[in-house]
Amino acid sequence: MFNFDEIIDRRQSVGKKWNPETLDDMFGNPNALPMWIADMDFKVAPAISEAIKEVAEHGIYGYSNAGSAIDSYVNWVKRRHNWDIKPEWVLNTPGVVTALDVAIATYTEPGDGVLINKPVYYPFSMIIESHKRQIVDSSLVIDGKDISIDFADFEEKAKDPNTKMFILCSPHNPLGHIYSAEELKRLLDICFANDVLVVVDEIHGDLIMPGQTFTSIGELGEDYANRVIVAQAPSKTFNLAGMQWSAVVIPDAELRAQFQQHIELYDLAIQNPLAIAAVSAAYDDGAEWLDAAVEYIYANFEYLQGQLNEHLPEATVLDLNATYLAFVDFNYLGLDNEALDQLFAKEIGIALDSGHWFGDTASGYMRFNLATPRANVEKAVELMINALQK
Prior knowledge:
The chain is of the alpha/beta class. The chain has 13 helices and 15 strands. The strands form four sheets. The protein has a seven-stranded mixed β-sheet with strand order 2-10-9-8-7-3-4, with helices on both faces. Strands 11-12-15-14 form a four-stranded antiparallel β-sheet, with helices on one face.
């Protein structure tokens, strides 16, 4: 029903991922096969395209009310994650990174510590530093394919009076890891006990691989959900990053009012009518497309994993429980970060997010975007095997 094998030429589009100038600037190779930035190479669900066409043909794109999109989002979260969100809890920002940006500006002061778990999505560090806050890192422990939290270290960092906020990435990017309900509660309990405000990025929460179970913060119960800020979005789920729409759920009225004040200060409240239509259609009618896309992506992962296990067994492929981003350890090559980046981008010819972008503990890893037609995955695998077996 959905043709995820279709090759769509994106090099001549406005899209950043395949843009030759961007590839040349970032990777030194305008012809590299792009498997880096997290957007999909799939056409969106047909219902989304139809909804956008309808608004486009209406011909008037004035100031718009996001109410329909919020209602669709709230209903989606209830169906998929069994979390009853009141529409008035939901504020909108152009993206989850913007939501984190606003949260840091709203609830912390220059010099305050913001706790994160590296290796983690690198904009976390960028926005913390841009606001002149201090990065407090409690790194995750990666032991082969096993990923764990150093709770003793985390609690020590949270107890520091200067630590004011914890930003949690759940599911985790780039490790593709899902935290258990027990792990989430333990992290939150530590933060609550030390007056550390928790902000959760759940942008990948709908991209859960077959056989896996994701626990959203909202499923932990009111004692947890009502004390945190949760940012979600359809951008990864439905390939709508360019539509610039995210939902920030803040049940606490005082915290919500403070956040709203900063949204208005930065003039971020205006909604794009095309985005409203796209988001509403995605959440109302996109479930079948999403389920099919997840199955396709996981088949891509199994292909990548199988080929590397057979032909490059020294490369450790972390389990992919969530996201569409495979994380592979190439430390066996014995290369430093610069040499490994050069090897993949220029010699092999694949543009990838480098592990060290996410934190020093991920040096030697590379992140593969598998939300792309199988032919692209096969080409990438062939390029890697031919180059690395030499």
